[in-house]
Design a protein that fits this description.
homodimer, Arc Repressor Mutant, subunit A, Dna Ligase, domain 1, DNA-binding, three-stranded mixed β-sheet, about 150 residues, 2 domains, three-stranded antiparallel β-sheet
DNA sequence: TCATGAGCTGATAATGATTCTCATTTGCAG
DNA sequence: CTGCAAATGAGAATCATTATCAGCTCATGA
């Protein structure tokens, strides 16, 4: 387990470094800390939430840096942007190629993740029909969870 | 055509009035103007854009009122909220039961609407699998349109 | 060795969409 | 009429995010 995590961390750190190099940017201690805290997390985080986690590791890191870094993580393909439409951008680690969408309870805000390759396929198809080259998508289903209904 | 439009307007106005009554609120001239301008439009509008349209009909109407009203329209089921993840809430008239999702070009921002009942069905299915009662969903596909690629 | 400069950082100001506040107005119920 | 609940417009407030800026770091080359 630890080995796997560590391997992911190393992979991700390399990937970030590579991405930074490509853009003429540098790997820094702050970016390292932010990456580590981010990868610890299971599920999604807002930049603000990540900022609070990061503070526990290094209180000197400013929130602007966290906002900047989390964008770099997204660019590098390490983070996936998730949007629930509440005006807050959330990010979640992208391990391997796994991908999923979200089901959100309108009452208690509880969230469930799911994957549906069939839907993915149909999305591809729709894009193709309209001559688009599909890059990404955003899908959130809203409903009432079993506990609330 | 005109008849159909007019019929929709009347239907929608009634629906709004009904919704307002249910909440102990009132139909007002301002709300009427905002509703009319909104229904004129083909496709989606931000509250800001709607505000500018409304000004042309009645410059005295304030933007706060437009923001408030557009929310009421959404509550009443007259408007559908569309979110492209760019921090601006957009709304579009909901005629009949027609529903569609969006395909957005990442370069030129051009938007195409599409409907895919198969996807809708699968979304229902996913919700059911997790015990959720599906209320709504948000799906936007991002890609590069034929002209840009 | 030391100067240089590109990039980085944190604090803070700025932005922009949206919401709130509040004094004033409107319009029906009694 | 009269009063009261709701509505309105103007502008302030909010909140997430982004821009600005002065100081810092560190590899490079003279």
């Amino acid at each position: 387990m630890i080995l796997i995590c560590r391997r992911y961390v190393i992979t991700h750190r390399n990937r970030l470094t590579e991405h930074l190099n490509k853009k003429g940017l540098k790997m820094t201690p702050q970016r390292g800390v932010i990456l580590d805290r981010f990868l610890d997390v299971e599920g999604h985080l807002s930049a603000e939430e990540l900022y609070h986690l990061v503070r526990q590791s290094d209180p000197a890191i400013g929130q602007a840096t966290v906002y900047r870094t989390v964008k770099l993580l997204a660019e590098a393909g390490i983070a996936k942007t998730v949007d629930f439409g509440d005006g807050v951008a959330r990010y979640e680690p992208r391990f391997g190629t796994s991908h999923h969408d979200h089901l959100v309870c309108k009452k208690c805000r509880r969230q469930v993740e799911f994957v549906d390759p069939e839907i993915e396929g149909l999305q591809e198809k729709q894009a193709r029909i309209h001559g688009f080259n599909l890059i990404s998508h955003r899908m959130v289903l809203f409903g009432i969870c079993p506990d609330c209904s």
